Amino acid sequence: MAAVAQSADAGLDNQILADVQNKALNKSQYKDVKATVQNGIVNLTGTVDVYSQKEDLDKRVHRIKNIKGVENEVEVAGPEIPDAQLQDKLIKAIQYDRVGYSSGSLRIQDVTPFNAIGVRVQNGVVTLGGHAYGPVDADSAVAVASNMKGVKDVINEIQVDPVSPNDDRIRIAVYRAVYGFPSLNKYAIDPGKPIRISVQNGNVTLYGVVINQGDKDAAGIRANSVPGVFKVTNNLQVAGAPEKQ
What we know:
245 residues, alpha/beta, GMP Synthetase, Chain A, domain 3, 3 domains, Lipoprotein_DolP
């Protein structure tokens, strides 16, 4: 009976392996990935070019019938890019990622000023933090990082701001107060909107980089002038000044 059971298990493992090869590894980007199956556990090894391919493969394999688990040991090959260089590339890519995208709930043409997503890179591992206006914006930032060559892994710590009509009113009012101020209007020219406005339950935080201390102070004062704002935290950085830890 034991031999029969072992034979049945081996037959099921072989079927799972065939399904993995035909349904999950049947794309050119997975040509350097190998799969083995033992007792229903799929083990993946080899390399892919970008982290998003590793994630996608994991999802594809999990959809295979009869598997008990997946051990994904696939490594991201890609180019070795210094952390500082990779971080700068990601910051710029994410800053401009959602330019021109609107939100029906916010009723404004571009939600870019209301995403304040931070990036840290260590040994090729990217950690995304900060605040996103909505889940689509957060997912989009993760996708940017996952598809950039040189990224070995992505840790998503982005907080999605709660849905609130009152916060939306404050967002728009602060945006107009800040970007409409004569000395700050120059920042509106940049489609990436370097002054970012994050709002949670009436509390406003300003992120980004401005040219001088006067512009930072003016932005804080303008945000504080908006009715309904409970508190303003001014985290704007002045270009060239050492970043506060």
